[in-house]
Amino acid sequence: MKKLLLIPFLMLAFGCKNYDDFAFSGVVVDYEMCQSMFNMGYAVMLTSPDTIGGTYITQEGKTFENVVVIYGSDRLLHPNDSISGRIYLDPLFSKTECNYHYDRDVPEAVFTELKKL
Q1: Please, which contacts does 52-57 make with residues 24 or more away whose CB atoms are closer than 8 Å?
Q2: Distance in angstroms (rounded) separating the CA atoms of residues 70 and 54
Q3: Is the peptide bond before 91 cis (omega within 30 degrees of 0)?
């Protein structure tokens, strides 16, 4: 009987990721390698919400405000693509999941839903 009660508890404790996702919209301004060409982080200048991003400087020296680097896209994105959907913040994503980690003051997030406009 105790084993039957322990299994659901372990599934809840270790098997389910709990996150609060929220709606966003914005424009892709750059991309960064994570593990491969098919697993990238996209620097997205958010138009909504307008207060969670940071200052992002591209390799060419262009500066963008209110940027979040978002991982977990189900498709390739390109600079100037307008996108929307849902994301959740994950401040340690690139450190724990990527071969490449960039030190910067820009929040990291993960897509839960993505629409290309």
Answers
A1: 52/89, 52/107, 53/106, 53/107, 54/104, 54/105, 54/106, 54/107, 55/105, 55/106, 56/29, 56/30, 56/104, 56/106
A2: 13
A3: no
pLDDT above 90: residue 46 = yes
Tracing tokens 């599934």 back to the chain, one arrives at 11
Tell me if the pTM is above 0.85. Answer: no
Burial class (CB in 10 A: 0-12, 13-18, 19+), 15: exposed
What is the residue-wise DSSP string for 16-55?
------EEEEEEEEEEEEEEETTEEEEEEEEEESSSS-EE
Q: Report whether pLDDT(21) > 90.
A: yes
- β-pairing, 63-71 vs 108-116, is parallel
